[in-house]
Amino acid sequence: MLHNLLKNENIVLASRSPRRAFLLEQVGMQFEQIPSHIEENLNGMQPDDFVLHCSNKKAEEIQKSHTDSLIIGADTIVVLNNEIIGKPQNDEDAFQILKKLSGKCHEVLTGVSILFHDLQLSDIAKTKVFFKLISDEDIKEYISTGEPMDKAGAYGIQGYGSQFIDKIEGCYFNVMGFPIPLFYEMCRKFKSE
Amino acid sequence: MLHNLLKNENIVLASRSPRRAFLLEQVGMQFEQIPSHIEENLNGMQPDDFVLHCSNKKAEEIQKSHTDSLIIGADTIVVLNNEIIGKPQNDEDAFQILKKLSGKCHEVLTGVSILFHDLQLSDIAKTKVFFKLISDEDIKEYISTGEPMDKAGAYGIQGYGSQFIDKIEGCYFNVMGFPIPLFYEMCRKFKSE
Prior knowledge:
Order of helices and strands of chain A: HEHEHEEHEEHEHH
CATH topology of chain A: Maf protein
Helix content of chain A: 25-40%
Distance between the termini of chain A: 17 Å
Largest interface: A-B, 33 and 33 residues
Shape of chain A: elongated
Oligomer: homodimer
Structural class of chain A: alpha/beta
């Protein structure tokens, strides 16, 4: 398991997300968390390319100053009908995003990158999330909890937002921000190389 | 949303599960937690009947001493090929259970019961959980974390166990022990009656 597989590595999580740190702590990993500052510029990229581009960039930025560490980069996006939906700019934006997601199925993609010296592995987890039909009143109540503001797609699956999710198909942890099972597979591959 | 819908109720969660309490706290609910002590005796019942029987019994027991409260009962079971898999008795039992689940899809069922005076509502959430193939070494490492022992199916989806889950289909919170989205629907129905 991860806590034994990586116990001798010096690990840096190149992300400011408290949810990613929480998930890695839950599987007993020890690491340092250092946010990276990259420009997330779409430039007409497709969702798959974009999310890998971002997770790679985040890891590469931190590797420059931590050359002997195993660096983990990750980026999560919400995609509806091939359109990437980012974090809301304000309450009105959050309302429009949640209206769009209501009653529909969208996809959550997380790109994961592992860098160690000149070894590089990256992969994507994809999960389908089916939203219930949400009333305008519920959307307003939800926005007033403050939960949507720092999250892609304007919702968090693990808090108040849990009430809106009809079902998911795929990895739950991916929707929370970091696909632990995929990461474990990637680490085993990395260790065998 | 739940925290507004139920804000005037005196709520008792008839369960000792810290995970159920956590999930209800996460959606802003206020409640008292009182474990109920029922005999979970299968008596040849089918999984659906059994899980509803248990959630009803738990709620009914607590209602006797809390006649003016809204009582929430819940029971979660793991089902593989129509066989109910309970909590492991010891490490060896946990090993056998996890060997059985490895590489296969099982179902997690949670029965939810709401009692308030003579009103009674109950329903079941079902989620498919697809396990990866797990090596004996990983099973042993997992058992040594102590996580399997108090959990139906000998795993917890939210901790070290997350590494074993290939994907799920349905409600994640159900697998954690309490299907929040179903509960919200039941509460809206309850409020409209």
